[in-house]
Structure formats: C-alpha cells, structure tokens
C-alpha cells in the first residue's frame, strides 16, 4: 500500500503505526500533514510529530512524482478519474487532487499543475459493522443509508457489511465501486466469497447493468450525491434488490432538509438510516427506521 509515495515519505511512514493513519495531506512547499487516530499532526523523518519545524516538506516535484506513480506512469490512463478530481491507487487509496481544472466543451476534462494531494488510506476493520448488522440485518437484508461528514469511516463500514451479508446470509452482494475503494477485485477476504465488484463505473450504469446481468440480492455503493443516482437506487429497491449506500450528511435533520434526498425519504426507499458520530471514526451515533424514528441499538450476538 502507498507504494506510489516518494522514498522519503515511505521511509517516514515505516516509523508509524499504519493502523491509525487515515489521511495524508501533501501540499507543494508546505509541511506534510497526517490524520492520525482522527486528529491532524505532521509527518517527520521519525514518524508522527506535533512540531511543524520537524515536519517533512513536499516539493512541487514530489507532488508531480506521486501523481505519476499512482497513475502507473500514464496520467492519460486515469483521465476519467481525474475529471472527478481524484485518482485511485492500486490498493484502493483515493488520492484527491487540487490544482488547475481544464475544461473542454463545457465539461471538466482533467486537472493539471496539481499542487495538493489528499490521500485517503483504506483500512479493512473486520467486525466494525457487527453492531449495525445485528441491529438491522440479522433477520434479512434491507436497504440502508449511512450518514456522516467525510472521513468518519463510512466506506470501511460498507466493506464490512458487504462481507457480513455475503458470508452470514449467503446473499449475492454486488459492489458498485465507483472510486475503487470498497472492494478489491479478486480478493475474497475483504468482502466475502459471494460478492462481485464493478469498478470505476458511474453508479447509474453499474446499477442498471448489475440488475440485468448479475442478479444481486444486495447492491453496495458509496457516496450518493445526485438525484440521478438516488433514482437509480430507488429503481433497484422497487425491483426487489436491497441497496446499502452512504452520503455526506450530518444526520437525519440534514437528510430531511436536503432537496436531493428528501423526496426519497418520503418515498421510504431506505429501511434504515445509520448515523455515525461526527467526532469519532466508525462510531454509531444512532439508527433510524424508514419513518425516521430511532431504533434501539443492541450488542452483536
């Protein structure tokens, strides 16, 4: 993992406990920051440090080299991802890009002169979704939406839920992995032997193809944003396929106030809404039913 980093950064990370490294913020001409155990510090030669003066500083050449390595030495091969402001590493690391956006025909074409990188480090935390599974899915699969601000562990929980549904309920689980973060193709240890993965396809295309060709019992996808994506999810649910997804929302109040999500809340597309704590990582604040009434949490069996 993170093989695309410069030699200096990889050497520094060998002095850290990678279980607790959630993000790396690499900015040209600025100290390298790291989200460690949910709080930001700096990365120095000896590992994590609170002293800015001891932090490593990335150059513009470092940023360029990381992008080049992460694209497998062919930036043109990741053009479609770059249009969306990120590229994905070989092990599911999402690398957010900040720089100059280039437009062609009114549409985003690519990002060039990249000056900042936000590298999200994926983690497989087996068992992190046990409580959610026990509360919502112990009797049958159901559609659910996980809510939290960015970086609170939604993707890690989705990955574990996919594994639990595939292994314990023997559901055929289809993972629509638009950013290459949820499921690792060909690695059954992450998401169970009864799971299939569609990578880097737009959600509408992936969900339509999945229902027609793969006959899933459950579809798992990440970060719903648009009404078009939600309409594709609703189509799956109406057709008898349960959907687990996530969204960047602070809680049920923000959910109801959202002009994009509120029509689907009224339609009761999702059976459950799982809210993660805003001040923790992977911690459940509450579970709500389709009617938005809270459901008592119980400990996993």
Structure described in brief:
The chain is built from 10 helices and 15 strands.
Give an overview of the whole structure.
The chain is of the alpha/beta class and 301 residues long. Helices cover 28% and strands 29% of the residues. The protein has an 8-stranded mixed β-sheet, with helices on both faces.
Blueprint (SSEs and pairs):
Layout: H1 7-13, E1 21-27, E2 33-36, E3 39-44, E4 47-49, H2 60-70, H3 79-83, E5 86-88, E6 94-104, E7 107-120, H4 130-137, E8 144-148, H5 154-168, E9 173-177, H6 188-191, E10 195-199, H7 203-213, E11 218-221, H8 227-238, E12 242-248, H9 252-257, H10 262-266, E13 272-276, E14 284-289, E15 294-295
Parallel strand pairs: 8-12, 8-13, 9-10, 9-11, 11-12
Antiparallel strand pairs: 1-2, 1-7, 2-3, 3-4, 5-6, 6-7, 13-14, 14-15
Helix pairs in contact: 4-5, 7-8
Question: Do you know the CATH architecture of the largest domain?
Answer: 3-Layer(aba) Sandwich
Please identify which CATH superfamily of the largest domain we are dealing with. Answer: P-loop containing nucleotide triphosphate hydrolases
CATH C-level name of the largest domain: Alpha Beta
Instruction: Give the strand tally.
Output: 15
Domain module count: 2
The sequence of SSEs as H and E is: HEEEEHHEEEHEHEHEHEHEHHEEE
Query: How would you state the average pLDDT, rounded?
Result: 88
Number of helices: 10
What CATH calls the topology of the largest domain is: Rossmann fold
How much β-strand is present in the residues?
25-35%
Fraction of residues in helix: 25-40%
The termini sit apart by 33 Å
Decide which structural class fits the backbone: alpha/beta
Give the strand line-up of the largest sheet: 10-9-11-12-8-13-14-15
| Shape verdict | globular
């Amino acid at each position: 993992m993170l093989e695309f980093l410069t030699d200096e950064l990889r050497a520094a990370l060998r002095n850290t406990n990678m279980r607790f490294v959630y993000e790396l913020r690499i900015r040209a001409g600025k100290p390298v920051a790291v989200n460690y155990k949910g709080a930001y510090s700096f990365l120095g030669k000896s590992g994590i440090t609170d002293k800015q003066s001891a932090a490593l500083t990335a150059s513009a050449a470092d940023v360029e080299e990381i992008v080049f390595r992460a694209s497998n030495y062919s930036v043109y091969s990741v053009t479609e991802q770059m249009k969306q402001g990120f590229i994905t590493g070989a092990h599911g690391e999402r690398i957010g890009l900040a720089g100059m956006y280039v437009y062609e025909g009114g549409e985003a074409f690519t990002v060039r002169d990249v000056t900042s990188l936000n590298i999200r480090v994926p983690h497989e935390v087996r068992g992190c979704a046990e409580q959610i599974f026990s509360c919502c899915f112990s009797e049958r699969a159901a559609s659910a939406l996980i809510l939290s601000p960015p970086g609170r562990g939604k993707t890690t929980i989705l990955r574990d839920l996919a594994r639990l549904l595939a292994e314990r309920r023997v559901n055929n689980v289809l993972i629509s992995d638009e950013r290459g973060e949820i499921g690792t193709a060909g690695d059954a240890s992450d998401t169970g032997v009864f799971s299939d993965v569609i990578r880097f396809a737009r959600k509408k295309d992936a969900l339509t193809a999945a229902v027609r060709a793969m006959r899933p019992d459950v579809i798992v996808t990440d970060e719903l944003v648009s009404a078009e994506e939600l309409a594709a999810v609703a189509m799956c649910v109406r057709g008898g396929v349960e959907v687990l997804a996530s969204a960047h929302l602070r809680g049920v109040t923000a959910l109801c106030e959202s002009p994009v999500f509120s029509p689907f809340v009224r339609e009761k597309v999702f059976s459950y809404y799982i809210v993660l704590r805003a001040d923790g990582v992977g911690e459940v604040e509450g579970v709500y039913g389709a009617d938005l009434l809270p459901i008592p949490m119980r400990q996993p069996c």
